[in-house]
Amino acid sequence: MSLSFQQSVIEEFRANGGRVGGPFEGGDLLLLTTTGARTGTERTTPLGYVRHAGALLVVASAGGAPRHPAWYHNLLAHPLVRVELGTDTFEALAVPAEGARRAELFEAVTLAAPGYLDYQRQTSRPLPVVELAPAEPADWTASGPPTNLADKLLEVHGWLRGQLRQVTAEVETHLATRATHQGPGQPPPPGLGLQIRQRCLAFCQTLEFHHTGEDGHLFPGIAQHHPQLAATFDRLRAEHRTVARLQRAIGELLTDVGIAEPVRFRAELARMTDELTAHLAYEEEVLLPLLADVPWPPAPPAA
């Protein structure tokens, strides 16, 4: 698909509530926006999709080309993606299926859209099947739209805590399953799996964005009005640096998910959880009283 044709499809999709004509008329189509693995620039791609057991599935077929499409490499680097489906837009976590799960989902896809079998026959690479899963942690729900900056901070912190709990639970489940499938005298199979990798990577990237925003904007803005809290902000920034070091250690383990050692990963995740949990509690203690009277969303600038 040429870039000009792709852009025309995107524009038609958005102008007509998800309906397009031409070769895609009547088909199930969504827009997937990923973040460039190298550039950090957002890229939007029209893709066919299949619904299966409540999930949205997309296939990195590239028309049977020998290499994975760019959008697939992008979501491996930045798992949080934006999905446009009809008139709805939402954030999702992109998780490529593995092993028996991939085989099961590819069969479901080809039953709904047999053309993917032709694409698979044209290439030696197994076509990745990607689940677009809910980005929110399973046990997290917002208490309502934030009306002030204190509410917004609590909302972000609640999301981060929920992600930590979910990643930790998935690691424990993985370790238990790993032990169950270990035969007598056999070493356990290596690796963490892409489900854990994608969720943990998304969490780390969101946390880094949050802390960068606090260091660059929130803390300096509050410090202008509360210079007596200089030592407090020094401590918060130092805690950010500590958490960032632990994040980098986790990121190094996720570089090659196929050989990442789950027990070591669990230990590193526990270290970061302890540091971050203490940091979030202290930040809330000192900042929430100062932010309760600051409206959210912020008022637009005066003309």
Automatic annotation (TrEMBL):
Belongs to the F420H(2)-dependent quinone reductase family. Pfam families: F420H2_quin_red, Hemerythrin. InterPro entries: F420H2_quin_Rdtase, Hemerythrin-like, Split_barrel_FMN-bd. Gene3D superfamilies: Electron Transport, Fmn-binding Protein, Chain A, nmb1532 protein domain like. Residues 150-291 form the Hemerythrin-like domain. This is Nitroreductase/quinone reductase family protein. It comes from Streptomyces chisholmiae. It catalyses: oxidized coenzyme F420-(gamma-L-Glu)(n) + a quinol + H(+) = reduced coenzyme F420-(gamma-L-Glu)(n) + a quinone.
